[in-house]
Amino acid sequence: xxxxxxxxxxxxxxxxxxxxxxxxxxxxxxxxxxxxxxxxxxxxxxxxxxxxxxxxxxxxxxxxxxxxxxxxxxxxxxxxxxxxxxxxxxxxxx
Length: 94
What we know:
- The chain is mainly alpha-helical.
- It has one domain.
- It has helices at 3-7, 29-39, 44-47, 82-90, and strands at residues 12-14, 21-23.
- A two-stranded antiparallel sheet has the order 1-2.
- The longest helix has 11 residues, at 29-39.
- The mean pLDDT is 77.
């Protein structure tokens, strides 16, 4: 389970029209790589709905996230584009 579910990450935002989340933190490849690698270990029916950072349920995520913080640093925050919002809403259903 990603820590944003239980500890309230400042970068977690509820996806519009959904109960899933979107992450607004800017990640470096080294920071996001462990999450993406752990995603490959998830059951196939979960991978279909776990599209980190665009659309995910933190319950199904790995136990760690290098981007977790209870305080938002605006230099590390990204704006979600309209295309990313659509990707999050439709995810792997497209």
